[in-house]
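Z., the sequence and structure:
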Amino acid sequence: MSDDRRPFLFDQHVALGAKIVPFGGWAMPLHYATGTLQEHLACRHDAVVFDVSHLGTVRASGPDVYDILQSTFTNDLAKVAPGRAQYTHLLNDNGGVEDDIIVWWVSDQEFDVMPNASNTSRVLSVLPGTDVTSERCVLAVQGPHARAKIANVDSRFATVPRFAVQKLDFRGVEVRVAGTGYTGEDGIEIAVPNEVAAELLAAIVDAEITPAGLGSRDTLRLEAALPLHGHELSPTITPLEAKLSWVVGWSKPVFRGREALFTQREEGVTRHLTGLVAEGRQPLREGATVRHEGRDLGVLTSGNFSPVLQRGIGLGLLSGDTPVGTSVIVELRGREVPAMITALPFIRKAK
């Protein structure tokens, strides 16, 4: 991991007992002393904090930025307004997803565009802005008790609505708080300048919010059927194949990849994102072949063990219109694992 970039809070994570692993060019916490399973359940039943500072932030401002975003990304900013966040895609000319992105529309002419860990350069190549990733940390507080517990750190953090973005003062510096996350739970994400990031993390942990790593972040997003770039999304996978047509502003006259998507919508997709649940506890794994009545349907794009369902679960790009409830076989390391096509998401949370 000598060549991996360390997050600003690296020493704090080590002190908290984190196991560090390489991820997207960064050295990040995989889990802490309690382990991935307990961190996952803490997020489902209580509250956890993730350091997601490896995500990029491109800060863009000015009178032309709105129009540039509209003509570059798939979603339609006209659906929202300043002070809101929006999920969107950056496509290539074939309609494949170069990256999936959260746009924080901070104020009238100011946007924080947040790509995946290794894709900041792709955003900078199409969007005039400044890479401020190294200047801030991003802490994600997630779980059904996230707001109640973060209120003990700062009561204003708890009141930022779902998919809203607000500038707030914390210990004399500006922080940006959004009602977003990647777990299927309620919560917030806080972009905090490095100078007070350690202080904020300490206050969050003192509020009995459990530190959690990338291991549980992945199993949580999988249970919620949230796509991961490089798995359910890639330059060779389109939003329509990933069942994310709602991310496309179909009425917009221009955006990258528009023509290819319209063609695919007219012709129909030959594969689409599908969920599978194993009959037993055997974790399903990426790359495993899925078969039905001797016919290959496709391969899994993600798989793991669901701590909530106590079953193996997986996502795959499968062909055909195999209905929910259909029994299939997953070929896993020479074994045939019985599974069933299921509706997504795997875990449905009360609003």
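The chain has a mean pLDDT of 96. The chain has three domains: 10-50+133-223, 58-127+238-267, 270-342.

Let me know what you think.
H.
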